[in-house]
Write a structure and sequence with these properties.
mainly alpha, two-stranded antiparallel ribbon, membrane, amino-acid transport, transmembrane, AA_transpt_TM, symporter activity
């Protein structure tokens, strides 16, 4: 069965949600997405543990997939691609300022965000490790890239359906959380350069709700953006590879380099001091990780393209 209708449907949903004016008004969608994330993660974790219990053995090895099932080169690329996927999982820093801007005070936004960041990193890391380890223990080298959408599990069907539905809802919210800052940036720049372009607004009456202000430029440009990203997704339907590439490209500059440099300037850390050296070592290490992850993800995409047919993703 072709996956294209589902991708198109997802794009249509995003066109509607993309008309939400700004980041501040999608707080509820972000909460729903977070709940869905923990829902499908918990389901995947539970099914993984159940599968291990059913097998009565732990599959897989500490060294990962065996040479023979894949070549040594493919294994190296896979490791690098995995680093990219991990990097993407921690690429929230690019929207952290936007989130902080929505936090109410007192207490101060900085204190709230620091506490929330520590808790969220701890909890998500715990879930990542548990899901990854339980999935590999359950299936070994044959573990799918995604335990639920990869159909690693078939029963119980109702639980799988709930998990897959949670993934879709999470992706809908996640898409908006990441693109709303981009929308705001572009529209702000357009408003500065061409004020008349961004000034055409229409009021749409919604029964039972306050009138919705529909901006013509926002409608057109956001719709075009969603259509383009949807078409690209259909053209390059390599989820793990593309995810790894995006994570690799964004991890070092946005999650490590700029925050580290801003911290050094803000705290006035002397150059070549012990703390400065440690921070630079961290930055260099993460740059190397990002570079390797980029290479691995690109290699993965190239390998996928060998058996690729445009708009031909089936499941």
């Amino acid at each position: 069965m072709s996956a294209n209708p589902y991708m198109i449907g997802f794009g249509i949903v995003q066109i509607f949600f993309s008309q939400i004016p700004d980041f501040h008004e999608i707080w509820w969608l972000s909460i729903v997405a977070a709940i869905m994330s923990y829902t499908y993660s918990t389901i995947g974790l539970g099914l993984g543990i159940a599968k291990v219990a059913e097998n009565r053995t732990i599959k897989g090895t500490l060294t990962g997939v065996s040479i023979g099932d894949v070549t040594r080169t493919q294994k190296v690329w896979g490791i690098f691609q995995g680093l990219g996927n991990i990097a993407f999982a921690y690429s929230f820093s690019m929207i952290l300022i936007e989130i902080q801007d929505t936090v109410k005070s007192p207490p101060s936004e900085v204190k709230t965000i620091k506490k929330a960041t520590k808790i969220s990193i701890l909890v998500t890391t715990l879930f990542y490790l548990l899901c990854g380890c339980s999935g590999y223990a359950a299936f070994g080298d044959t573990v799918p890239g995604n335990l639920l959408t990869g159909f690693g599990f078939y029963n119980p069907f109702w639980l799988i359906d709930i998990g897959n539905a949670a993934i879709v809802i999470h992706l809908v919210g996640g898409y908006q959380v990441f693109v709303q800052p981009l929308f705001a940036f572009v529209e702000k720049e357009v408003s500065k350069k061409w004020p008349k372009v961004d000034s055409k607004t229409f009021k749409i009456s919604i029964p039972g709700l306050s009138p919705f202000n529909l901006n013509l430029f926002r409608l057109v440009w956001r719709t075009v953006f969603v259509i383009i990203t949807t078409v690209i997704s259909m053209l390059i339907p390599f989820f793990n590879d593309v995810l790894g590439l995006i994570g690799a490209l964004g991890f070092w500059p946005l999650t490590v380099y700029f925050p580290v440099e801003m911290y050094i300037i803000q705290m006035k850390i002397p150059k070549w001091s012990k703390k400065w050296v440690y921070l630079q070592m961290l930055s260099v290490f993460c740059f190397i990780v990002s570079a390797l992850a980029t290479v691995g993800s690109v290699a993965g995409i190239i390998l996928d393209l060998k058996n690729y047919k445009p708009f031909g993703l089936d499941y």
